[in-house]
Amino acid sequence: MKNAIRKTLIACAVTASFAASSGAMAQSFPDFTVNEGAIAGALGQTFTADKITGNYVEVITFSGSETSGTFNVSLKWNAGQFVANNGSTPVASQLGGSASQYGLYALYQGTGTFNTTASGTVFSFTPGGSLNLFADAQSNTLFGQPANGALGFSTTNNADDVLIATGTPTSGEGRLDPSLSTCGITNGINCGSFGASSSFNLTAAGSEYFVAPNPFYNISFQSGQLNNFNPTGTQVINGSLDVIFGGSSEVPEPATVAMVGLGLLGLGLARRRKQA
Question: What's the rounded Cα separation, in Å, for the pair 233 and 108?
Answer without folding.
Answer: 20
